[in-house]
Design brief:
CATH superfamily: Gcn5-related N-acetyltransferase (GNAT)
Distance between the termini: 29 Å
CATH topology: Aminopeptidase
Order of helices and strands: HEHEEHHEHEHEEEEHHH
Strand content: 15-25%
Number of helices: 9
Radius of gyration: 21 Å
Shape: globular
Strand order of the largest sheet: 1-2-3-4-5-9-6
Number of strands: 9
CATH architecture: 3-Layer(aba) Sandwich
Helix content: 25-40%
Length: 279
Amino acid sequence: MKTPSTQFTRLTRRTQPTPTNPPPPGALSVRVPTPEEVSAFDQQLAAKHYLGAGRPVGHYLRQIVERDGQPVALLVWGPACYALKDRDRWISWSLPQRLERLKLLVQNRRFLLLTPKGAAPNLASQVLAAAVRALPEQWRQHFGYRPLLAESFTDPEAHAGTCYKASNWEPVGLSAGYSRHRADFYIPNQRPKKLWLYPLCPDAKALLRAPQLPALDGQLLTADPLHCQRGHARTIVEKGGDYLFQIKGNQPGLRQQAQRLDTLQATPFLNRAKAATAG
């Protein structure tokens, strides 16, 4: 049986067409894996990252960083933390602004170098810089909008965070020592992490705390289950937006209540033979 690394490299070579404008020799390129590569991607993380592959929650983007056609690093991005005292102080936004704009923040959930330790000095910071340059457009292509700010954590007991510092991320404090257990639930882990922030556009902080965001009229935005809360829905509706949410087949009581309250004949209540599973 081939190792995950061999499978991933062979799959990468087989499925990717030759680019029309290939990068110069030695340059880094960043792409999103094909659906056929996702399993091998996650196998790499499960086998080699100390936190494992993790479970996709909400908007979730994988990146492959390559040099001369060979994968050298894997990164995963997902939803930002609901509340972080030092981050929120750095942005200086209000609670309603945070509820409204949290999805404009993304978190670096995994970062794995595939090269042997010490084999490529400065590669980690170069990879991280290339990844965040590509991230806003790749995120827009998949989810319909550009994020404004990236966040990440390092464990002070295990990593100094040198690559984040070298690629111009800003250390802004420590987490409170909790880990995400489900989409909207955290448990204490007794190990506060160092928090790093990176603006994905020059005026990210100003936009996040501005009285009004640029107009999004006519746009459809999606959010992870964290935003299926009464306060979030109220904020969206009070600002003139429409709030759509999904009721799964495994919530029959809630579904029946919604149907009884409905007054619009064309509201799409769709029956499915099999209820969708969470994940």
